[in-house]
Design goal:
428 residues; mainly alpha; two-stranded parallel sheet; two-stranded antiparallel sheet; 14 helices; 6% strand; binds 2-acetamido-2-deoxy-beta-D-glucopyranose; binds copper (II) ion
């Protein structure tokens, strides 16, 4: 007995001696050895001491959220095949669970999955004003993840897409190779025109990568897209029966898995956005690709670059983009990038909100920049399209209609402990 005990304590001692003790979150989130850590992954690892110090500083104020009990959001190809299938099952489940959105307002919502799409459409101003873009999307992903877990029995957390892993060949990547462990394949060849971009020639167009038609392979090949289109540029899609795009318009999922777009989301872009922009507005603008960096030949900004890795319909539609299930992987990555940026200097950055010098999100999906700007003039819009001008940022409410209760914008900044502890997750 005694002998065994001392062997155990000796090996513990040796373990501690032999090198850094593996942290709880690392052992719970193994990485896929096929993908060596990129510069952003390394940056993420390097923030953990800051995160620990920030948690210690906020002790008693993190609503019982700790690094030990925090959820872990992982990269898609770090998940095992079974874990990916389980995630896919949950998304398909959400797509076959009845909608909660009122039928008179959103006759086109076929499922709980569509409730989120409809919310992104009706709350577009709230979700995309400079004040709200980061925080409201953090909340949006959180409530989607919650629906997967609580309504569809999913035990994991929302995965993200590290674009850099797939830049060279997104079509054959674990995200989009069309296998049963992917998020569905590319779209068929079509007359997809590419996507206009707010940059001088020749960067004013993100060219088609050859797809744009219906997705024919993988778990979402039979998916029915119903809401929209509202701002898409994809040709030959029937118009929605309602001007607001909320009517029923059943059609296939269309994609143009696009390596040109992906090139604007290489890790060096993400790294530079985080490290070269200590100011929140500069970071925000860079994230949106504005203004174009001198000589940059992939100037889309990681936000648009990530969206147009799939583009298509509804993925390329400003309003309806969450109708492609890959949306949540992309915005998960963006949320991760925001967190890594925040944790460079939590004291000054954790509660910084873009605004004063933030540029308006460039028009996309066929929308002009002036139309975008008009949408953001009054920032809080409820489900009945009632607009409230906001005086103080601390009063700002993010209202996600029938998908989630309205919450204070400033309660969404702390990923570890925000919303009374409801937000409690890290990225690995
Ligand atoms: C934190 O945990 C303690 C002990 O379980 C509990 O009494 C308290 O209500 C919790 N606080 C919050 C904000 O959840
Ligand atoms: C990232 O690297 C690519 C080459 O792989 C280069 O063209 C681009 O300018 C770099 N971008 C930044 C922001 O460093
Ligand atoms: Cu959005």
């Amino acid at each position: 007995m005694r002998g065994i005990q001392s062997v155990v304590s000796l090996s513990l001692l040796l373990g501690a001696w032999a090198g850094p003790v593996e942290k709880n979150w690392q052992s719970k989130a193994p990485r896929n050895p096929a993908y060596p850590l990129d510069v952003v992954d390394k940056l993420e690892e390097s923030i953990m001491p800051n995160v620990e110090a920030w948690m210690a500083k906020r002790a008693g104020n993190t609503n019982n959220c700790t690094l030990e009990n925090a959820a872990i959001r992982r990269e898609w190809s770090d998940l095992s095949a079974d874990e990916r299938k389980e995630y896919i099952r949950a998304v398909l489940c959400l797509q076959s669970t009845p909608a909660k959105a009122p039928k008179d307002k959103v006759p086109g919502a076929l499922s709980r999955f569509d409730d989120f799409v409809a919310t992104h459409m009706t709350q577009a101003g709230t979700l995309h004003s400079p004040n709200n873009l980061f925080a409201a999307h953090r909340y949006f992903i959180h409530v989607y993840e919650k629906a997967l877990r609580e309504e569809c029995g999913y035990k994991g957390y929302q995965p993200y897409m590290n674009y850099d892993r797939y830049v060279d060949d997104p079509i054959n990547s674990p995200m989009f190779d069309g296998s049963d462990t992917s998020m569905g394949g590319n779209g068929a060849k079509s007359d997809y025109p590419g996507i206009a971009q707010p940059f001088p020639r020749p960067y004013n167009l993100l060219p088609s990568a050859g797809g744009g038609g219906c997705v024919t392979e993988g778990p979402f090949k039979d998916m029915v897209v119903s809401l929209g289109p509202k701002s898409t540029i994809v040709r030959n899609i029937p118009a929605n029966p309602r001007a607001d795009g909320l009517g029923s318009n059943p059609r296939c999922l269309r994609r143009d898995v696009n390596k040109f777009s992906a090139a604007g989301a290489r890790a060096n872009y993400t790294y530079s956005a985080i490290m070269d922009n200590p100011d929140i507005d500069a970071f925000y603008n860079r994230y949106l690709g504005m203004p174009q960096l001198k000589g940059d030949v992939h100037p889309w900004g990681i936000h648009n670059a990530g969206h147009y890795i799939i583009g298509g319909d509804p993925g390329g539609d400003f309003y309806c983009s969450p109708g492609d299930p890959a949306f949540y992987f992309h915005h998960g990555m963006l949320d991760r990038v925001w967190w890594i940026w925040q944790m460079q200097d939590p004291e000054n950055r954790a509660h910084a909100v873009p605004g004063a010098a933030a540029m308006t999100m460039p028009g996309h999906g066929g929308m002009s920049s002036s139309a975008m700007k008009a949408m953001f003039e009054t920032v809080d819009v409820d489900n009945n399209n009632k607009k409230t001008r906001r005086a103080d940022i601390h009063d700002a409410v993010v209202d996600l209609g029938w998908t989630a209760p309205g919450v204070k914008l400033m309660d969404l900044n702390e990923q570890l402990g925000g919303l009374g502890g409801e937000l409690c997750y890290i990225y690995v």
